[in-house]
């Protein structure tokens, strides 16, 4: 009976196996939805030929949905961690978070797009030099770290004027420097993983959610969340 009971507990609709499968499905669904928001940028990147003003501007515009998409992934995985597994209503939750992130942080996406435009022009004009390449790379890294920091503190309840929220996010990141270093390491590892032969494309269907889960775990371990909560409070 004990063996039968254990088997029933494992294979029940709310058993351990079902919870694991639902968790895997959530990671897949959230990642696939994020990739859908990145699809315009991917299409433009693949379709672009020679560098031109139109190509640069179109590329920046096509990348605009990626920011709110990243916010929605962060929100979804925060819920996943808080509820210890599958949340349900994934598609509705994702697009609701996407709309919230779009409206709530529209100033952030506008600023990031402006910086992206500036970096793209610098890369196009001076990209042949090592110094210019390093400068553009460093600028991109700083923009990525700032976007992650603002999204994280916004999800913790930070509100106010854009400059106040940005200052709070950068203060928390500077106070816990291991957190932004962990973010960049996670993003770099995810990008490298997508380039792996044979497995890279398949990993892409799970990487956004897994990368964000790792990022949120790093926030907790490094104390970024506690510092941000103290600043917000």
From TrEMBL:
The chain crosses the membrane at residues 20-42, 54-74, 107-126, 132-155, 167-193, 199-218. It comes from the Bacteria. It comes from Glycomyces niveus. Keywords: Membrane, Transmembrane, Transmembrane helix. This is DUF624 domain-containing protein. The keyword Transmembrane helix applies.
